[in-house]
Design a protein that fits this description.
- Helix 4 crosses helix 5.
- It contains 10 helices and 7 strands.
- Strand 6 and strand 7 form a beta hairpin.
- 45% of the residues lie in helices and 21% in strands.
Length: 256
Amino acid sequence: MTTTEKDTGKTAEYLGRARDKVFLEAQAATDFSFGEKVASVFDDMLDRSVPFYQEIQRMIAEMATDFAAEDTSIYDLGCSTGNTLLNLDVSLVHKVRLIGVDNSEDMLKRCRQKLTEQGVRHDYELVCADLNQGVRIQNASMVLMVLTLQFVRPLYRDTLIKSIQEGLNENGCLILVEKVLGEASVFNRFFIKHYYEFKKRHGYSEMEIAQKREALENVLVPYRLSENREMLLRAGFRCNDVFFKWYNFVGIVALK
């Protein structure tokens, strides 16, 4: 075991969360799913698989103080275990309603547990729904999709983004964090290579990386950054900008 593996394992243990070992052993190829096995280690998976995940979360909470409006709702679509909702609860002084949406009951179970344990101050609601079937957004000053849109089938993405735009209040914003393709194949190869090096530094083995890549192949379908920005404009957002970029990960904020 490398020093990085030891340190990461200690960190996970210290935080009282399970270490991600989902793909540690050889297994038959199956599509990635957000069931109990993944939900139980998801927080560790995020920290070790998403570059600057905690900084992205900090930036989202910081921008929320700019855009959240009194007596409105903030939606976290694909809320998973509730990290973003918890950060918003701490950061926001406005009277807002937090609404978390996810299609995994296992994720929502852990999210509900974390929100209860932390004693969330704001009113909140957790909804189990498949974003491929659309979502109803009402009286929203912010909608967040943190590593979520990439799991929505491309066929439904334009419709989903349009419904979000229509449900946002004037001057409301959508924050989108995505894994993306490089604008050219040469960049894409470099970005992916450096991303796998990042995962190795955080204790993942070659086999774990390869097996997860295979499991995600038909489940996570990334767009290029330019395609995501063009989609936002098609949906009617008047402007959008990049607030975070690390190789093949990007954060975009779009304004209605």
